[in-house]
Amino acid sequence: MSRTPTGALEEADVAVVGAGAAGLYAALCAARSRARVVLISATPLAQTASYWAQGGLAAALSEEDSFELHLRDTEVAGRGLVRRSAAEVLVHEAPTAVADLQSLGVRFDADRFGRLALGLEGGHSIRRVVHAGGSATGRRVVRQLSALAAEDPMVTVLESSRAQGLWNARGRCRGVVCHDGTVISAPAVVIATGGTAAMWARTTNPPGSQGIGLLLAHAAGAVLADLELMQFHPTAVIGVPGREGFLVTEAIRGEGATLHDSEGNRFVDELAPRDEVSLAIQMRLRETGERSVGLDMRAVDPAHFPNVVSALREAGLDPMRELVPVAPAAHYMMGGIVTDLSACSSVPGLYAVGESSCTGLHGANRLASNSLSECFVFARRAVEHAVSNSPRPPQAPGEQELAMLRAMPAPLPATAATRDALWQRAGITRTREGLEELAQDPHPLARLLALSALTRRESRGAHLREDFPERDPSLDHHHVTIGGDAQISWQSWT
């Protein structure tokens, strides 16, 4: 059931912060285990960042595909930084996640024989991406899961509510404090607040993707990692009023769309991993002085991507008749709250799933459409661990502790100045001087990101240092981590 928060004390077996794909699925998995769930949604249901996701779910589903091929493509895209154990979990369990979503009523695109229609996206060696409504996958999935969560008697949805802080006591996370004073007492808290890409001035993400979950977890003592690894999507619309930053899905290039410079020349393999394509566009724009390159999708069937075509036409650009002006934009954070393979953070009782987490799956460059699969695979794992290992019933705070919790300061979003600074100093290419300036920024997450990027003295995947242009093989599988005390260290994960 959905309702507005009341400022009271709530009790639950599992509290989920964030109602995108990962949070919704975590809530539903917990409810199926007969756990009482409180789901905190900063927006009305079905209006989260996941709603706008155009990619699909990557899974080895065809006879020609295999777990080994999916694993290989993930590791190649991740540039020597993929945690193999996390990738093995993903490739083996993604097909089950697709089947479970179908059982929950999600209708994926199929051919005329009823077989799932598999798309090809950058970095994949074979067609393995399932979509729902073409490029409307996020919309279809979130809409269906939102409807189920709203109807489930085991799930209480607090709409238009924001987490202000986490309640830590006696060595574990014990609940969540909301902005209106509502305190949820729960022995298991799942952070599913999405990523950080809206902290950059140029982004494909909605304004709420500000890394709030990372700040909440870090303030509670959780370790963060790989904050320097922001993926820039190559094809975000630029210069079209009302559609600035609108993402044109990679699947369109998988169906034959091509990229052209100002002279009409193709200059990059359009289906190379995203770091390669984004850098190639950036370098071409530097050479020509142009603001964009042209995406030619005139040979693509518009019926496969109805929301992309209609959105552009509404903005006055017909992609079936003219090239779409695109350039890279901040899109997806590979780093986040460090978790193990059960989505447990370094703080007992605190879990992280989706883009808020850092399992090491994505390495230094996420393989297209692995992220939605990750949401469902690791959300289920988080809930299985939480339900099996969390003490019940939850322990409520006393009156004095309640007053202290409600006085906790809330994380603040990035200002326009910080967003500009991140784009200029931690964009597609970085320098030591720029990162040192960013390390003095007022925003805590911007500072932590700059320190992480300064520590990684090499270029790898989405992290490109002009002063260290080569990859350092000695740093393969080594991750920059930041503890709750803001101390930076290196960790190697397997």
**Helix segment tally:** 13
- State Rg: 21 Å
Poorly predicted runs of 5 or more residues: none
Architecture of the largest domain, according to CATH? 3-Layer(bba) Sandwich
Q: How many individual β-strands?
A: 22
* Secondary-structure-derived class: alpha/beta
Do you know the CATH topology of the largest domain? FAD/NAD(P)-binding domain
Can you give a write-up of this model?
By secondary structure, this protein is of the alpha/beta class. It folds into three domains: 300 residues, FAD/NAD(P)-binding domain (3-Layer(bba) Sandwich), CATH 3.50.50; 100 residues, Alpha-Beta Complex (Flavocytochrome C3, Chain A, domain 1), CATH 3.90.700; 77 residues, Methane Monooxygenase Hydroxylase, Chain G, domain 1, CATH 1.20.58.100. Helix content is 31%, strand content 18%. It contains 13 helices and 22 strands. The strands form five sheets. A six-stranded parallel sheet has the order 1-8-4-3-12-19, sandwiched between helices. It has a five-stranded mixed sheet with strand order 20-18-13-21-22. Helix 1 packs parallel to helix 4, helix 3 packs across helix 9 and helix 11 runs antiparallel to helix 12. The longest helix has 20 residues.
Quick recap:
This protein is α/β, with parallel strands linked by helices and 494 residues long. The chain has helices at 21-32, 67-77, 84-103, 137-151, 212-219, 250-254, 274-288, 306-314, 370-389, 399-406, 416-425, 432-438, 444-455; strands at residues 2-3, 9-11, 14-17, 37-41, 57-58, 118-119, 129-130, 155-159, 163-169, 172-178, 183-185, 188-191, 224-225, 230-237, 258-260, 293-296, 324-333, 336-338, 350-352, 357-358, 478-482, 488-492. The strands form five sheets. The protein has a six-stranded parallel sheet, sandwiched between helices.
